[in-house]
Structure formats: structure tokens, C-alpha cells
Design brief:
By secondary structure, the chain is mainly alpha-helical. 54% of the residues lie in helices and 6% in strands.
Length: 710
């Protein structure tokens, strides 16, 4: 039996993973495409005049089987990319692209949608009509026959290239893992960390300690390794990922992708792919994006240079070479941070066991804000033994299901993300089923996973995305939850990061894994100080990736055709933007082109800047919580969990639970529940009470004065 052919009978249509066979995915997908084609044909052939019900709602209700199978295919491709799954994705991706292109180019369907009368302003119907008209226009429906045929070929090829990039990157990342055979090469690492690396080596069938690579350029282990040669091996392996061609090389894919995207943009009437993308975002234009990046780049680089000098001085007085490289800067910056903030990083992680961070941190914060409860559903199974299933409840009402997949696996794509198996909608009456995927190192047997502060933030960030999907309350699937522009989709997730260090929340989850002791006040202070530590470095590496992304995607088709060397183009683009080695030594872009999964396989092409745009909204928008007394802004206090001595000492009022809930309900009503049914600028203005400003972002990152201090 194939459980995908009919809606699941499990709660909220949770896929019946226990009975899904990978071998069924491609045949089911093809059946789903045939069914969807028939549904579209029936809409077009309807002899009745176009009405909202027989055209727009019929269109939104179509493709249910297709959505079910695609959710499974693409989830498996990201989380458990076995050979069978890879083969299925490589088959599905181009065929899906051809199907979507055919729908977008269907002249009969386009004519029926265009025949719809204007809908009431600010209504969901108006938003849906705008969405579909834009889909048709940007999908090429206005092109002539030759243009439509060329566009279809480009879209299919781009789908193939995206899949191939991701597959090769997984292979390159796995092949790039660094094996150490002598324990002295790992000087500086804790015993727990070394045990994890030995377990990873054993899992890979090797003898020694295996350092697997994460997605960004800078590998976290570089902060701890005191052996310069060991750091260099890891940094070089990280930088080399995806170079060249073949099964672990992405150079050819990068070049062909850029050329095809440039040609596609010109076919549709845009000067380049960046302009095509920006039009659909809240930013609106590439010029607006350039303005934001320009405003942040100069102070970030100034701070980065100051941070580099101080780290180099630390290395020098310690007897090391002060000419720091990409391999050295993270280590010496961490040494300086430990000295000045007096924080033992390994000891700090003991206050952040994953289970408490999730249950008593992220879930607790959501309860305070929105009144929801997240309870385990041990009777339901996920798509992998690592996955836990939770039910989200609002009083007596079941809101939806949340799946959590925390551990790194060789077959899992790097990074962290949220996706959905079922999108909330009131048209069909479906509740959301969403998943958070992370890549936390699996702890040794019998031990708990202890998180770094960055990993704690990631848990809250991804659960913010989950809340955006879970608390959606709209009629149409296309407008549900996180189906919003990229530069707005990160706004709720980044807002949610703030609660990680909000005193009441921090006090509830940050307890020592062995003693149960609450995070002491001096460490609370140090943790908050870490928020601004190294912001010049982290902001500059992020900006370098943004500028690199835009450099590739503001090329015209003719310009793209002339680029033949990925590394040379990358180097020139970074120097031109003022973020290359000549301007800021030892700082690499967060992602180099050949492992920049976000833009070549992850849907963020010409759009990586959207995280910064969303952070502008977040840094300013969170002040609405602070101004109304619902949050302290992370300054002082230990909240309403019974340990409020620090709050009193700091003169900071503990937020009233009613104020917290009132502010949370406003955010839920104005932002989280509305999906893509709103005018985003108006929604932000209504929630914040004023238009957005970049100044709170600069202040938060310690960049407001453009200085070089931490």
C-alpha cells in the first residue's frame, strides 16, 4: 500500500512515515502531476464563466497529492540523502519544473484569472489575486511562443543544476572531513568534544578523531584548537569544498546557473536576476538593498579591523605569529574573549543542555507570549529515528504538529531550517505540520547535548519560523505561514531569537546539567556581553557573502557569458565591495561560491541580504515589546521565574505576565497569523507604531559609532 495516495489518517495528516517507501516517491509524483494536470484542465474547460469559486478557489484546492509527495521528497533530500533519495530528487526536480512552467504558461488558465474582478482592498481575496497574477507574469505567461519554450527549458535546467549543486556539496562536505590520528593534534579541545570526534570517526569506519565540516567558512572548532597546523588543515578543507568539477566540484554548476538566471531575467524584461528577485521582496529594488548594505559595510569593516588588531596583539604577546590567517583569527579572538569576559566556553555550555533549551526555553517563551503549549506525542513517529513529534495546543484546541530533528548525520545537508509537511489553510481545513532541522553534534552515549550560545540562538530562531507556520490563520494555502517574501520571512524568526536571553526565559532554562544550578549573575552578564563581541568580524563575513551573491546576480547575460573563473570573479567582487583580504585580512565570506548553498540550491539567490533586512525589522520591531513593558530587552533581571534579585539590583522591572501576553497576542494577530495576506510595511508600522529604522540594528551590533572596539 502507498500511504501517499490518500490524505493521511494520522493527526493533522501527519505523513505515515512508518509505511512510506522511497521506491514509491517517483511513481507517486508522476501520478500526482497527471492528477494536477487534469485538475487544471478541468478549471480551464469549465463552460461556466470564470467565478472566484470555480477558478481561484479551485486553483488553490488543486494539487493536494502533489504537495504531499513533494514535501516528502524534498524533506528526505535535505535530511537523509541516501543514494535512493538522491536519485528520486534528481528525477523529480526537472520534471516538477516543467510542470510548474506549464501551469504558469497555461494561457487558458491565465485568461480566467485575469477575468477576475478587483477584490475588496486589503482582503485575502485581493492578496490571492495579486499573487497569482504575479506568478503568471513572472512565470512568462506574457511571452510569445518562442520565449515561453526557451523559458521552460531554462527552468528545467536550473532545477537540475540546483539539485546537482546540493548533491555535490553534500559529497564534498563529507569528503572534506578532517581525520586526526594523534590526540596531541587536538590540544585545546575538551574531553567531551574529543569523545564526539572519536565517535564520528568510528561511525565513518576510521580510527582517530574526525572533524566533520559545517556549512559556513569558519568552523566552530577553530576557536578551541591551540595547534596552528591543525587549525590550518581544517580551514583549508573548509575553503576547498566544491572547487573544480566532477562529483565533488561545483565550479561548472555555478557558472552555468549564473548564465541561465541572467538570460531568464532578460527574457522576462529585467536587466539582471538581482532586479528580478528584488521586485518581489519588501525592499523592492536593488538600489534599496545597496543602500542598506552600504550603510552597514563601512562601520562593520572599521570594527573588524579593530578586532583583527587586538587579536593579532594577543597572538603576539602569547608568542605566536601576529600575521593571522583565516585559520588563526577565530582562535585568538576566542582567547581574547575568554580573557576579557572571563568566560569558560566549555563550562558555559553546561548551562545549555538541548532538552532544557527546547522545552524550558523556546517552548516556555512561546507559552508566555501566545498561551500555547507544546506537548510530546510519543505515539507518533517521524521520518527518522532522530525525529521527535510534538503537538501544539492552544487551550483545548489542537493547533498542529511540530517535528524536531536535531542531530547532524552524514546524509543530512548542513545548516538549520524549517519546512512544512502540511500548510495551514481554512479553504480545505488543514492544520499545519512543520519541522525544524538542525545539525547539532550527537552527544556520546549516555550524555546530553550541550549547546554553544550560537546553537541556543539557532534553536530559538528556527522555532520562530515554526511559530510563523503553526500560528498561521488564513484561507488560502498559497498565502499561508512562511509563504512570504524572503526579506520578511526572517523577521518573525529573528524576533524570536530575542527571547533566548530575555531574563525570565533565560532563568527558566539555563541550569547546570550536573548541579541544576541556575546560570549565575556573572555569567549572565558575560553571555549578554558576548552578543556584541566580534560583531565587526561576524557582520563583515556576512556582508561579504551578500556582496558576492549580488555580484553574481547583477551580471547581464552578456557579462555572465564572459566569466570563466569562479575563484577569480569571487576575489574581484569582494575587493570591489571593500570586504576582500586587502580591506579586512583573515576574514572570508561566510560562504564561498562553491559551497554557497543558500543561493545555488536553497532559494536565496540574489536574496542572501534578506537576513539583514529582516534584522533591521527585528532590531527596531523588538522595541515594541520593550516599550510596552513586555520585555526588558535582555538587560538585567531574571524575570518572573522566582529569581528576580538581579532585576531589582539593576533597577529593571520584571515584565508583568499580562503585558507579555498582550504584546504576544498583538504580534500573533498582526504578523504571525496573517501569512502573505498583508501589506508588510503597513503591518510593521501598525505593530511598531513607526516606520523601520536601521539605527537600532547598528546599535545592537555595536556598530553605531563605526569604531573598532568590541
Amino acid at each position: 500500500m502507498n500511504p501517499l495516495l490518500e490524505p493521511s489518517v494520522l493527526d493533522h495528516e501527519l505523513p505515515d512515515f512508518a509505511h512510506i517507501d522511497v521506491a514509491d516517491l517517483v511513481p507517486t509524483f508522476r501520478t500526482a502531476v497527471t492528477d494536477h494536470e487534469a485538475e487544471i484542465a478541468a478549471i480551464v474547460a469549465n463552460p461556466e464563466p470564470p467565478t472566484w469559486e470555480n477558478t481561484m478557489e479551485a486553483l488553490e484546492a488543486s494539487g493536494q497529492l502533489l504537495q504531499r509527495v513533494l514535501a516528502i521528497v524534498f524533506n528526505y533530500a535535505g535530511t537523509d540523502a541516501t543514494a535512493d533519495v538522491i536519485a528520486a530528487e534528481e528525477t523529480v526536480a526537472p520534471e516538477l519544473s516543467r510542470h510548474i512552467t506549464a501551469v504558469n504558461l497555461d494561457q487558458g488558465l491565465y485568461a480566467r484569472v485575469k477575468a477576475m474582478p478587483a477584490q475588496p482592498e486589503d482582503s485575502e481575496n485581493a492578496a490571492l489575486l495579486k499573487y497569482w497574477l504575479r506568478q503568471f507574469r513572472r512565470g512568462g505567461a506574457d511571452l510569445d511562443e518562442a520565449g515561453r519554450e526557451e523559458l521552460g527549458g531554462i527552468d528545467a535546467r536550473l532545477a537540475e543544476l540546483s539539485t546537482a549543486f546540493g548533491r555535490r556539496l553534500v559529497a564534498a562536505t563529507d569528503a572534506g572531513a578532517v581525520l586526526f590520528t594523534a590526540e596531541e593534534e587536538l590540544a585545546g579541545l575538551s574531553r567531551t568534544r574529543k569523545d564526539q570526534l572519536r565517535a564520528d570517526a568510528e561511525e565513518a569506519g576510521q580510527d582517530g578523531w574526525l572533524v566533520r565540516l559545517g556549512l559556513p567558512s569558519v568552523q566552530p572548532v577553530l576557536e578551541e584548537l591551540s595547534d596552528a597546523a591543525s587549525r590550518r588543515r581544517i580551514a583549508e578543507a573548509s575553503a576547498a569544498r566544491g572547487r573544480g568539477t566532477g562529483e565533488t566540484g561545483n565550479d561548472d554548476i555555478v557558472l552555468e546557473t549564473v548564465r541561465l538566471r541572467a538570460r531568464r531575467a532578460e527574457l522576462l524584461g529585467y536587466p539582471n536576476h538581482a532586479a528580478f528577485v528584488a521586485e518581489e521582496e519588501t525592499a523592492g529594488t536593488v538600489a534599496a538593498v545597496d543602500d542598506l548594505l552600504d550603510r552597514v559595510t563601512a562601520p562593520a569593516v572599521a570594527n573588524a579591523l579593530g578586532e583583527y588588531k587586538r587579536a593579532a596583539d594577543k597572538a603576539s604577546v602569547s608568542g605566536a605569529d601576529p600575521r593571522l590567517t583565516e585559520a588563526d583569527l577565530p582562535y585568538w579572538d576566542a582567547q581574547l574573549r575568554a580573557e576579557e569576559l572571563d568566560v569558560d566556553e566549555a563550562e558555559l555550555t553546561k548551562y545549555f543542555p538541548l532538552d532544557r533549551v527546547l522545552r524550558d526555553g523556546a517552548f516556555f517563551a512561546a507559552h508566555r507570549l501566545y498561551g500555547i503549549d507544546v506537548v510530546p506525542r510519543e505515539d507518533l513517529v517521524g521520518y527518522h529515528p532522530d525525529v521527535s513529534v510534538w503537538e501544539v495546543r492552544d487551550g483545548e484546541r489542537s493547533v498542529g504538529l511540530f517535528l524536531f530533528d536535531p542531530w547532524a548525520r552524514p546524509t543530512k545537508r548542513g545548516g538549520a531550517w524549517m519546512s512544512s509537511f502540511v500548510d495551514q489553510n481554512n479553504l480545505i481545513g488543514q492544520a499545519p505540520v512543520v519541522v525544524n532541522v538542525l545539525n547539532i553534534a550527537r552527544p556520546a552515549a549516555g550524555e546530553q547535548a550541550l549547546l554553544s550560545l550560537d546553537e541556543v540562538t539557532t534553536v530559538f530562531h528556527e522555532f520562530g519560523h515554526a511559530l510563523h507556520g503553526l500560528l498561521s490563520d488564513v484561507r488560502y494555502p498559497s498565502l499561508s505561514g512562511t509563504n512570504v517574501p524572503r526579506d520578511f520571512v526572517e523577521f518573525p524568526s529573528q524576533i524570536n531569537e530575542n527571547w533566548a536571553l530575555e531574563p525570565a526565559v533565560l532563568a527558566n532554562y539555563a541550569h547546570h546539567v550536573e548541579t541544576g544550578e541556575q546560570l549565575p549573575p556573572e555569567l549572565v552578564t558575560a553571555v549578554r556581553a558576548q552578543q556584541q563581541w566580534g560583531q565587526g568580524f561576524s557582520t563583515t563575513e556576512y556582508l561579504a557573502a551578500c556582496w558576492l551573491d549580488l555580484a553574481w546576480h547583477r551580471l547581464s547575460a552578456a557579462q555572465a557569458d564572459r566569466v570563466t573563473d569562479v575563484a577569480a570573479f569571487e576575489a574581484e567582487a569582494l575587493e570591489e565591495a571593500g570586504v576582500g583580504p586587502a580591506a579586512v585580512p583573515a576574514i572570508a565570506p561566510r560562504y564561498r561560491s562553491t559551497y554557497f548553498n543558500h543561493i545555488f540550491a536553497g532559494g536565496y539567490s540574489a536574496d542572501y541580504w534578506s537576513y539583514l533586512w529582516a534584522e533591521v525589522l527585528d532590531a527596531d520591531g523588538f522595541r515594541a515589546f520593550v516599550d510596552t513593558g513586555a520585555a526588558t530587552g535582555g538587560t538585567g533581571g531574571t524575570g518572573d521565574s522566582g529569581a528576580s534579585g538581579e532585576a531589582a539590583a539593576a533597577g529593571v522591572a520584571t515584565p508583568d505576565p499580562d503585558d507579555v501576553r498582550f504584546a504576544g497576542d498583538r504580534f500573533r494577530r498582526m504578523i504571525l497569523s496573517r501569512g502573505a495576506t498583508i501589506d508588510y510595511d503597513d503591518a510593521f508600522w501598525m505593530f511598531r507604531g513607526q516606520q523601520r529604522s536601521v539605527e537600532p540594528l547598528l546599535e545592537r551590533r555595536g556598530l553605531a559609532d563605526g569604531g573598532g572596539d568590541h
